[in-house]
Every structure is written in structure tokens, then in C-alpha cells.
Amino acid sequence: QVQLVESGGGSVQPGGTLRLSCAASGRIFSINDMGWYRQAPGKTRELVARIASDGTTYYVDSVKGRFTISRGNVENTVYLQMNNLKPDGTAVYYCYHGGVWGQGTQVTVSS
Questions:
Q1: How far apart are CA 105 and CA 64, in angstroms?
Q2: pLDDT tens digits, residue range 28-85?
Q3: Do 22 and 95 touch, CB atoms closer than 8 A?
Q4: Is the pLDDT of residue 86 over 80?
Q5: Closest C-alpha to 104, from 6, 2, 4
Q6: In this structure, what are the phi and psi dihedrals at residue 72, rounded to the nearest 5 degrees?
Q7: Residue 103 pLDDT > 80, yes or no?
């Protein structure tokens, strides 16, 4: 089974920066995308960014130019670099791969 473990969440002021990490273990399907989703209080979970096995990336419009998804040098690790965070970025962020979700990491953006 695949296991996904996120880290790197925290509290920052608007304009701040965080870097989320997702470490995958188990039966990794390299052909599958890896993605970051988020769920804000009272809202549905939404896709934030996704990276394909060939490196192709996708971003939701609201984070384009501020967030960057990348694969790490360590195999099966994915990062989400979040710059210029805004209060609407407050949410639990989840890593996703091959039908499996991580446990989530809280990001709070507040002054």
C-alpha cells in the first residue's frame, strides 16, 4: 500500500512563505500524477497543483505565479513551495497519489 506523509505546514502572516513536503512510500505508481489539494473550513476540497510523471504541471488559477510544485531529488518526494501567501490560503493541505491521501498539514495565513 502507498503511504503519503505531509510536513511543512504552519502559521504565517500574509505575504509569507511555506514549503510543504510529501514523502511517498510503498507501491508507488510512477506513471501517476502527484498532487496537492486543500480544504478550507466549510469548503470542499480543491486541487491546488499537480505534477505528472513527465514533469508537466498544473495550477489552479488562484495560485499561479505564487506556488510551485516540484519533485525532489529523493525519490517519491514532492514539494509545494508557497510564496506570497494570502489569508484565503488558510486550509488543510493534502498530498494525493494513486487514490491515496495523506493525513494533511494545516496552513494558517493570518496577521
A1: 21
A2: 666 678 899 999 999 999 999 999 988 899 999 999 999 999 988 767 889 999 999 9
A3: yes
A4: yes
A5: 6
A6: -85, 170
A7: yes
Distance CA 81, CA 12 (A): 14
* Beta bridge partner(s), residue 67: 82
Amino acid type, 87: P
With contact defined as beta carbons under 8 Å apart, do 72 and 79 qualify?
yes
Give strand ranges (E) for 13-111.
18-25, 34-39, 46-51, 57-59, 67-71, 77-82, 91-97, 100-101, 105-109
Nearest CA among 83, 92, 79, 73 for reference residue 15: 83
Alpha-carbon dihedral angle through residues 77, 99, 47, 9, given to the nearest 10 degrees:
-50
Three-state SS at 94 = strand
Name the grid cell of 30: 510512477
- C-alpha cell read off for 51: 505534477
